[in-house]
Amino acid sequence: MRAWNRVWLVGIVLWLAACGAAKSTSQPPAAATFIETPTPSIPVSTALSPTPPSPTRTASLISDAPITLTLWVPEDFAPGAERGGDVLASQIAAFESEHPNIQLNYVLKASYGKGGIVDWLTQIHELMPERLPDAAIVDSRELDVLDAQELLKPLNRDLPSGTYWDLFSPAQTIAKRQGKWLDQPLVLETEHLVYDSHRVPVPPTTWDEVLGDKTGFAFAADSTDTFLFHYLESGSALSATQQPTQNTSVTQSILDYYQRARANGILNETTAGLQSARDVLPLFLNGQTPMAQVRVRDYLVERARLPNAVAAAIPTRDGRATALVSGWSFVMFTADEARQRAVLNYLEWLSAPDHLGEWASAAKMIPASKSAFAQAIEPQAYADLLWSLLQSGIVAPSFQEQAPYADAWHAAVQAVLNGQLSPEDAAFRAVQAITQ
Predict the structure, then answer these.
(1) What is the pTM (predicted TM-score) of this model?
(2) Looking at the chain, which terminus has fewer C-beta neighbours within 10 angstroms, N or C?
(3) What gap in Å lies between CA 220 and CA 280, rounded to an integer?
């Protein structure tokens, strides 16, 4: 069966390569290509007006030989995306117009899982490494998988150092692995509190304030991200063998908070079973809850429909205002020097503050660089909140690091919310499951 899968995969790869090779280099420079596998190439409109080049762009391409760069991207980062796709397509057209010897071939991939970007990259690397794309955009929590296979090529050779130092602190942590600058975060993802100012005069900042006021508060109690944020924010770490006593204590305190919120009616039956922050905002939109813990991206998309909504930091045990931060990073795979120069040329264009700020604003995402952030996020009060949360943000560990904890936390949360176990017993069993 594995042999058949390999044959099938090789066939698909060759077919995709043929699609890419079929693109004529004599096309007008303003035409970018966007592919959704396994469908053939779909040209982006050539009528899009170019974006003026950024004055900060300094990299130059030495070779004049025509190059077609292949980039694998998730749907939200493609020229055909529902939000920001038209802006990105315009910027691609402008880049190709200024660099007539470079064409960009965007290939759409699933974000995660089987058939997702990282899954494809690891399989292609194993079977046909010469068929790897020149670059890709991946979740920062999967970078360790690519780094372990030594797929990531350093970016610091031709990019100006200012590009790195302009990143928010969590983005700088994401960008460097063992002292090497191996990826460039483009946007960041995080969550915050949103509350109805007509129903909540002052938002809570601590767990005690949440429990004392008894105002409804919707959050994805069964989400790994939610538990992980409280776990790391409370000073624990994903290192159960090194600090099992502290991990048990922190786990118990989180479970106790959940149990008391459920008993007080703050966390109702609907929200107690939610496993993703994506499912929370609709409850706030339709008035079912006056407070909710939501993804920034979801809030930005729906903000126009929330005239009375105000954002704030997520309540924490001790009132510290922070957030769990991940990102989407641009990574390079090609080892060919001419193609590397072309990739870095495009990356510098893409991450220039005016370009990244314009696209992120349209895409409803948070730019990873401070200069682009200043152009993309408004109004000022909201920008100030996000800036503060990002500056003190906690970088989300990789999915592989989270994996041993996720199932244990899920079982513990369910047992406590269903009244099957006390927080103390559930925490003990969770840490046992993690350390075994």
Answers:
(1) 0.85
(2) N
(3) 7
